[in-house]
Design a protein that fits this description.
It contains eight helices and seven strands, in the order H-E-H-E-H-E-H-E-H-E-H-H-E-E-H. It is of the alpha/beta class and 267 residues long. Helix 4 (102-123) links the parallel strand 3 (77-80) and strand 4 (128-133).
Length: 267
């Protein structure tokens, strides 16, 4: 399964997977784009299953994940790719329909809900992977102000979402057995995606570079066994994530946020 699969890196990933004759669950928020991407997958020799949910809506995300869990016997790989960037310089804060800060919701809260809902299906596979597509830059989350009510900056919001996603990777890696591996990959710097285009910063790497870094964890059993990668090389995670108290505080803040904003009770 690839989230955010109808454009940018996600679309490039599903094309590469289709070339390998994979069955790909194609996620997007636009039904027409999902249908077109599924057609592209089948034309390249793969098989496609489309699923639609706007990650700004956690109830819709949870409903989609539960339907998949009911319909799919097992999932070998979950690639959490969907994200929203900082936007144009000076862009204002935006809240979702459930009152969550938009970047944090799409980049972290929705992947959290999806991952834990699908965890039994991932565990059912003999050799499964959760690959969280991240960034090389992070910022610890203010657990008392997840919606950034007191102050807002788009880059801070983006870095916090990626920090939380890396924390999720750490938690899942600790909780799961030997047949399920969770990794966090910063695929490449400033690829030519919509996320980067909105910032006004010119791209400095290619989608092919980014896809290669992500897909190495799907196909290469010889990849070093570690949590955090930059490209295809192991890297050191932020020092704050070595503190179990910081991860615990974040888990509890997220559980409270999910329950209060959308009624989804997942830790």
């Amino acid at each position: 399964m690839v989230t955010g699969a109808t454009s940018g890196l996600g679309r490039h990933l599903v094309h590469r997977l289709a070339d390998r004759r994979a069955t790909v669950i194609v996620h997007g928020r636009d039904e027409g784009k999902v249908a077109r991407t599924c057609e592209e997958v089948t034309k390249r020799g793969g098989a496609a299953i489309g699923c639609v949910a706007d990650f700004e809506d956690l109830i819709a995300t949870h409903d989609m994940a539960r339907r998949l869990a009911a319909d799919i016997p097992a999932i070998d790989v979950l690639i959490n790719n969907a994200a929203i960037g900082p936007g144009a310089p000076g862009a204002p804060r935006k809240l979702t329909c459930q009152g969550n800060e938009r970047c944090f919701c799409v980049g972290y809260l929705a992947p959290h809900v999806l991952t834990y809902t699908l965890l039994p299906k991932l565990s059912a596979s003999r050799e499964s992977r959760i690959i969280n597509v991240g960034s090389g830059t992070h910022e610890p989350v203010d657990t008392g102000d997840l919606a950034m009510d007191t102050s807002y900056d788009g880059w801070v919001a983006y870095r916090r979402a990626k920090f939380a996603l890396l924390s999720l990777t750490h938690d899942v890696a600790e909780q799961c057995g030997p047949h399920l591996r969770a990794v966090y990959v910063h695929p490449a710097n400033l690829m030519p995606t919509n996320l980067v285009a909105e910032t006004g910063i010119p791209p400095s790497s290619t989608l092919e570079e980014g896809a290669g870094a992500v897909l190495a964890h799907v196909a290469d059993p010889q990849m070093p066994q570690t949590l955090f990668y930059t490209g295809q090389l192991p890297a050191s995670p932020p020092q704050e994530l070595e503190d179990p108290g910081i991860r615990s505080a974040l888990r509890h803040a997220i559980a409270k946020c999910l329950k209060e904003s959308s009624g989804v009770a997942i830790l």
